[in-house]
Amino acid sequence: MPTPRPRQVFFLLASCTLAASAHASYGQMRLDGVGLLLAFLLSVAYAVIVDLLLFARIFRHRAAAIAGSAAGLAVVVLLLALAASPGERAGYFKGVPGGSELIVLVLTSAVFLPFIVIAPFAQYLSMRDELRWPGWITVWMAVQLALLPGFMVLTGTEYYFWQREYKAGQAEGSEIRAGGLSGMVERAERRRERIWGTGWFYPWKQKTPAGAYPRSSAWIVGVAKSIDASSLVAANEPLGTPDREALRTLISGQFGFYALPQIRAKLLWDALEPGRFSRQLAPAGVNEVGAADEEVIPLLLERLEKHAGPRLCPGGRMVDADRALLKALVLAKGRVWNVEKRADEMRPQWANYPSRIERLCLGPA
């Protein structure tokens, strides 16, 4: 059997582990979790070192075998201790356990951790008794090398199962009718996470720490996108109270990851009252957190042009304070920095928004 190249094996497995977390921006990185990640990489690196020492038959010496197993046990204890820390787990899994990070960690640990403790002493005992190379050590090394292609296969199967789950969510979301959103909340809360790379689901509901969104689910994405594009959300008629509360629950929980401008515009639209636009669209100010954003404003403007009617324009005319608030929002959200001109300027597609606002509800004064 050819000697494995430790640097290649180590960095390939490390890259597989880190790839699942690469989507997180630098600004979102936490110190919690770094210890667990480093301990995991240390266990992989030490397993590669043990492989090389086995090939060199260093562990035929009793002292070397004892030292090798003791060092392996120390690595195992370190990794398990860090894995037992809630803070380390929260940092490693970006708040919510599961996904590819869990599968890579569990499978790699299951292969490497027993090996680095047992293999040195196993070689010492076999060579002390002048026996042949233990066959199970060779098999165990082969399993180590098979981890990386195995993870690559799981990455490919994950795409297939993700698409299948996404289409199922789309189908369920497209069947939603008025009064049915409460049932969707119940189904979303009961749904378990799928095991990464497979079509199986965890037998238990994954616990989401307080303040964290649930882990991204293909089914939830499909449901969210189909509801966002549904006629129920596009309608001018306000949602019933149960449906409105259900949508808010979904937005604050399962849908919190995704850009759903139509749903957010619909919730704001249903809440608008003449003379009180500022309360719904900019409760703390047009430049503060909570103000309607640049995805929602164009949708609200379209709805106002089509359906403002007597509900939002008493007597056929928009309240001056509401019109002024809309203009202020457009100016606040529509201006972008032009690097060449070194000045703020209106987005090209927003250039006619102020004039469109001026034309809204021009009834009798």
Description:
By secondary structure, the protein is mainly alpha-helical. Helix content is 62%, strand content 2%. The chain is built from 16 helices and 2 strands. Strand 1 (335-338) and strand 2 form a beta hairpin. Residues 1-30 have low confidence and may be disordered.
Report how far apart the termini are.
Answer: 91 Å
**What are the segments in which pLDDT stays under 50 over at least 5 consecutive residues?**
1-30
Please state roughly what percent of the residues sit in beta strands, choosing from under 5%, 5-15%, 15-25%, 25-35%, 35-45% or over 45%: under 5%
What percent of the residues sit in helical stretches (DSSP H or I)? 55-70%
> Structural class, judged by helices and strands?
mainly alpha
Order of helices and strands: HHHHHHHHHHHHHHHEEH
Major sheet: arrangement of strands: 1-2
Radius of gyration: 29 Å
Quick structural overview:
The protein is mainly alpha-helical and 365 residues long. Helices cover 62% and strands 2% of the residues.
Task: Name its key features.
62% helix, elongated, mainly alpha, 365 residues, 16 helices, two-stranded antiparallel ribbon, single chain
Helix/strand layout:
Layout: H1 6-19, H2 34-55, H3 62-83, H4 86-92, H5 99-128, H6 135-174, H7 181-190, H8 218-228, H9 231-234, H10 241-252, H11 261-271, H12 277-281, H13 296-307, H14 309-312, H15 320-334, E1 335-338, E2 343-346, H16 353-358
Antiparallel strand pairs: 1-2
Helix pairs in contact: 1-2, 1-6, 2-3, 2-4, 2-5, 3-5, 5-6, 6-8, 7-10, 11-13
